[in-house]
Design goal:
This protein is mainly alpha-helical and about 475 residues long. It has 17 helices and no strands.
Amino acid sequence: MPEPSAGPSGGDDDPTPRTGPAPGLRQVLLTKGYLGLLLVSALLGVPVSLAAFWFVGLEHELQHWVWESLPDALGHDRAPWWWPLPALLLAGLLLAPVVTRLPGRGGHVPVDGLGGPPTPPKAVPGVVLAALACLPLGAVLGPEAPLMAMGGGLALLAVRPARRAARPQLVPVLGAAGSTAAISTIFGSPLVAAVMMIEAAGLGGPQLLLLIMPCLLASGVGALVFTGFGHWTGLSIGALSLPSVPHSGVPDAGDFLWGLPVAAAVTAVCVAGQTLGRRVKVFTTGAPGRAAPPPTARRTAVRTVVCAVAVGACIAGYALLTGRSPQEAALSGQATLGTLAADPAAWSVFALLALTLCKAAAWGVALGSLRGGPIFPALLIGAALGVACAPLPGLGTAPGLAVGLAASATAVTRLPVTSTVLATALLGAEAPNLLPLLLVTAVTAFVVGELLRGLGERRASRAPVPAAPPNPAAPPNPADPPR
């Protein structure tokens, strides 16, 4: 997500947060510049959410055609076990030229998270093409990162380049508003997107309020447009939701006693997937400071295709092991998560553990090589492991599902408040009873995740890496910006 930043004011009407001595909150809110920023944020929510709506609608239609209509036309009642192999091969072949030739390389690598500066407008076409090449064909990634990049890039088009250069403080604020509008409904509630921006900003007091108000406006307008066009067109708006969840009473001591180690296990799986993703990223794009020079554009393209096929192999492995549809382990996991929550008894413990391991492996490879968002698949991984642990004495299905959702979201985003709000929105009417367990789970997952990452960083620091020698003979990557 765009990183909001504070900086010196560009003038009396500068609407952006500033550091040091500043006028009162009321004075800033009533300035012409800030009121204009609020108006621009509200207006931006309309075109940004429209673009996001049609992107999500197209992605869902392509996904339905690849995984349901096409297998049916070929005489299969469902996608056969080998279906992910050619599908992901095609995804890799389509993605390779985007990440090596187009500006922006199709967006940032998913293992880097949702942070970073706003996407420049010229990189938005590459982000859209990369997402449409990966997501419908089964890449184990979600749509949230491409939507945020697209929303932030489109929002910057509202300000002339000269004005962006003169007032750089406008860039993160507009980027955050555009990103919030783009993801206003995909997490099930515009409140989740707004809370995510609040927690990720790391600001407090008046600065936070000045930043979040444009985001709230853009998110509300975006949700209105998403919902309205969804009803009008009949297309899916891609909202993450659980139509039915297991009934839950008030958690007891057994739920908490088992919930803590289950949360730690879910966190360990997610952190392991991210660690795999970082190693795959080094394989595909290289790493600064390594002795070996970064791979050429051609090698990056080949390695991207290889990784895409590896993702397909993990998905096919799940289908072979369980005899179930490979679609359950492919894609973002949004549909499978709803199916699992509605009827957890239809899954054996073995099938749930196989889904956890195979999808986590595919997710880890995709994080370092393909393009998409990291959150949606992680939620399914956590939910599958949580439900698999439900037969433990004293732990029920609903608490296991709740622990898996909150722990996986916290482990991936490192935002415990956002993760608790997201899990609460997904659990619906059962959330009030499970809220104490969700809060404890989020804190546990955050602490365990930071400990595991710190341990990995200490191990990596013990192995000195020689500096990379200059390699003037290596051809430049055409996607790299000019120096």
